[in-house]
């Protein structure tokens, strides 16, 4: 069994720690808000006082934070993880951040003799609980192979896509379709509904058609009833689209459907839907179409 | 066994006639270009000299033509099907045409004492051959119930969505997502590729992700190798988007992703990709991104 | 002085007739709704009972109607103008219709030995009253030269742009920028306002900047106060954008800003702004931005 | 006459210094690349060794740099201008940078007892040489009034729009229309040309129409012949659109025409037009339309 450190104990991070503990690993954790760690501490996780202290511990260090700024906050400075890493350690970042920031951090980690992998996941908390999470990995192949048994505890489908930063690039390239498919689905439902077809019937037909991706199957029903808690809210979705749009500018790839969908996410936020799952794109478009509810 | 008439013997129409013949029905057919009917005649289909003559025959009349103009051509005038229909007959149009045109034709058919159903399908020739075609039906429920056994020979999933014209409305509302999903997928593949990930690897990851609808799974591989023959070419796809955009204007539904994707279909045609499957949207976007092949 | 016939006595048509009467020409008019002609009859215009009767009269026949369907209504059939035209007559259509429809009508007119010119105008009723209207002309050069003195009574800037249909093509190619410029202006005003700049100040700066086209100068103030009566309402503006989008598809010209602006016109109509001047695009975008008024 | 310091001696900055020298002011300058200052040194400008040294000198300090990063480079650190400023000095930044960065710098400047104004200009070098440049000013009104006589040497139209950062906000809100109007103009020219109207004729009609803003009049002719040197290249234009899009996200203003035009700027760069004036949007769209030249 390995000594594992984990920073970032939100919904996804906590789920991962539970799986690691359940598999018999020794886990030490850190989170900006300590209170969130309480259930995990009761489940056997140890606590560390700072990112730096966590990094000094285990053989494998994980981070799962919400964006590039949060990653900077835990990685840099005297209390950051780079300061705590040393030769031979493997650091695995599972956050979705900008590929450039990921590569910069990998270089800083390498300068301490450690190795970094970017390892974002595809799927939500329920996918993970079902044991179906996919993990894409970027970085040194030897480090990848050493980490594989631990990563497979988190999710069974692990794919090495190339050098540092490429796994987050791949994640971002995937995620833009989430929002675009949701908006196109909404356009279809509203067209059908205003034609005279019941919203439920329209949705049923669409969910049985060739356009029904797993994402469409998960979120389609949210058109009828939004979930009590957002799986992935408007701002989170927009964060990923902004990373895609930034990559598009740097790499010279025009992204017409991404760009226009991003403006609809802004519209949804302006209409007061900020905290809701991005399936609320349907509600935003419905208002633009003069549909009351 | 029933007496069935069939007008429009293209790829889809011919496949349907084969299934009807195989199930033991007596089929009389008509097609503008008679030569296309030869293999079906050898398989047992009978020939009629005009749409009107066909309509005068069997108890169930089917049409499967390429657009609204083609439907007008076979339905109106002294040799058209309306002239041939009489009380008690059931006429089933499987084409994707404008909902307004479909409703107008249904009214003309009703004035002859016959009943019309609009019954577009979701799926391609391969879906039909696998016996998995979905059929949406609009129109009178009694006529729908009488037709059900025959329709189930063509495809097993038959859904009555409402009054005349609503099935084609539903079909159009579904199809807009085909093109939008294809363009969003292309944006993702190009982002990944220009990041440094092999096109094959990028596509593999995307086809295993939550955005992989059946459509994405069918057409994703076309990004690596376009098919010798288009399944659904740029102009056919644009025809459906134009029907969606026309409905959007009449029903006051803004369609941002549909509108912008439609301009990319025009771009693809302007670049010389007119005759290719609409998966060629990838090639059009690649050129805009300065990618040679 | 010439004998002039005029069909279509709306705001623009009536203004033109007044100018022709003021210049001493003998004018016979026709309008679907006779009541609208009353003030012109008092000003000296004569009345004719049908388009055909009007066409049989004067040497120059004008039409100024609202769209392609209205042009068909007055031009075809036994009471239509084609039936009334004869060799040597010149027929000038000032409506904005589809270039294809214009060319078809020109062919029908030519078959009667008469000549047709398409002559749409650029500018509104106030431009005409100031004597500054521009007129673009498509069609036979000899017919153009014969008509020039009469056209100059209506507006001083008359340009021959080429063969039949090309003047309406040019008009449509110009008009798409009206809506796009208005929407871009609205985006700028809302950005400035939400930054903390008073709407009036923002508008003043914009109206003094390099983006202030005559259109922006006319309609910018409508952002502060919509006019009591629309100069050019949402549906009229959308009619022109649809003609542009149709041309774009036929001629293979992608129109990204036109397509997306057209969806915002639909949004404006869905929000209940149908009857208002298209400057109401600002209000539609403001609602999308969560701005109350 | 005042003691004026000036940092950033590019095309615009040099032109401003010349006007200040011509008006009799004593000017001390600094530029990252010293060579560019040579002609100004010959014209009487003095040289300083660092931004900090420049800031320590004159009563009025100006900066005119290319983007937010360049402004950070000259303003922060031990050699930066903030380190050199002291009570009573007035610092005027004429660059177009992010409003947030401008406000942060203003706060740093205030902490030294000095006052900062953001004062971006509307117009190009030729506008300035004609003595017609507009200047928008954000910041403290007293500092604005003290600076007015000096600002009027640079351009005659000076408007105080509000607090710190609001002038750059206003500039960005104006500039988005530059690119959008250029793209809409290009759509119109290509529609007309593919209809059969000569490109020159189409452009002439458009330049005489109600859509002809000063920007359209300047850049329209570039469609026929691109200038030898870019006035404002693709990357500069995209920098401004990105600032607008960033503001839109922060302030919840959807920017549909800006977002789609921005993707066309990326397309133009991907096609190899990076160094050209943004009027090259026409060429990018022409390629998408299959037009060779």
Largest interface: A-B, 70 and 71 residues
- Provide the domain count of chain A: 2
Low-confidence stretches of chain A: none
Q: What fraction of the residues of chain A are assigned to beta strands by DSSP?
A: 5-15%
CATH topology of the largest domain in chain A: Rossmann fold
Largest sheet of chain A: 6 strands, parallel
Distance between the termini of chain A: 53 Å
The number of strands of chain A is: 9
The CATH C-level name of the largest domain in chain A is Alpha Beta
Q: What's the quaternary structure here?
A: homotetramer
- Give the name of the CATH superfamily of the largest domain in chain A: NAD(P)-binding Rossmann-like Domain
Architecture per CATH nomenclature, i.e. the level-2 architecture of the largest domain in chain A: 3-Layer(aba) Sandwich
Helix segment tally of chain A: 14
If you had to describe this structure to a student in words, what would you say it looks like?
Four copies of one chain form a homotetramer. With 293 residues, the first copy, chain A, is an alpha/beta fold. Chain A folds into two domains: 3-164, Rossmann fold (3-Layer(aba) Sandwich), CATH 3.40.50; 169-288, N-(1-d-carboxylethyl)-l-norvaline Dehydrogenase, domain 2 (Orthogonal Bundle), CATH 1.10.1040. Chain A is 52% helix and 13% strand. Chain A contains 14 helices and nine strands. A six-stranded parallel β-sheet of chain A has the order 3-2-1-4-5-6, sandwiched between helices. In chain A, helix 9 (166-195) crosses helix 10, helix 9 (166-195) packs across helix 12 (234-251) and helix 13 (256-270) crosses helix 14 (281-288). The longest helix of chain A is centred in the middle third of the chain and has 30 residues, at 166-195. Chain A is elongated and about 65 Å long. Chain A starts with a strand and ends in a 5-residue tail after the last helix. Chains in contact: A-B, A-C, A-D, B-C, B-D, C-D. The B-D interface holds B 256, 260, 267, 270-272, 287-290 and D 256, 260, 267, 270-272, 287-290.
